[in-house]
Amino acid sequence: MTARERGDTGGQDVLRRAGDASVLILTSLADGAKHGYALIQDINGFAGVQLGPGTLYGALDRLERMGLIEALPAEDRRQPYRITAAGVAALRAHLDSIERVASAGRLRLGLGGI
Amino acid sequence: MPGSRSMRLVEFALRCYPRRWRSRHGDEAAEIASLLIRDGTPVHSVAWNYLVGAARTRLVGGPRRRVGAAVCALLLAAGSLGVPLALLSSPAPANAASVTHSRTAHPRPAHPRHGDPRPAGPRHGGRGGAPDRCGHLAHC
Asked: What residues of chain A, 2 to 31, have a C-beta less than 8 Å from chain B?
């Protein structure tokens, strides 16, 4: 597995091209491990986004390949996932990047910085 | 629990995933589908989302899978183009109606007249006396 696949990119925003679903999943997993249906419910709760199940599994597979999340032992038929240290770093870098863009956008709209 | 008919649609979509994916996620994916449908998500939306996910999973697989998926896509595209072309180019009188229609739509003479300036290449019925189908296909 390459450093990039592990998410070890020295503070770079590896989630920039990973898609919104990946960011939403990492954000949901930031406060604890969850399985697929719990992820969909949680994301709907905090972001108002109804993630399709196919989209969810595609993003989970991609994040797992990148080493940003890992699967825990299955409970019955449900497979829980948790965020890894690389995932926390990637999410932090992405949120910093979004904050910079949001701040610049607010300033330029005359709304004041964050 | 959603009806068996709606679940059949979802199961069909899940069967489009690679076997390895199904052995790992299949049971949970079916359970999530039934829970989402119970919560009010339309069945066709769940099934379609799984179908798109299956296509993506196959496309981002290993190089052999990608080649296989590309070949399948090409065959599908060729098939979807080939069937209408084959129907249009079937010999008269089987498609007499469509020939009549095409003459109406594209008012060209069926057979090149003597002194017709158009080239008598293969696209324009170089076999002499070929039906109008070549001209019709040229418009397609």
From this structure: none
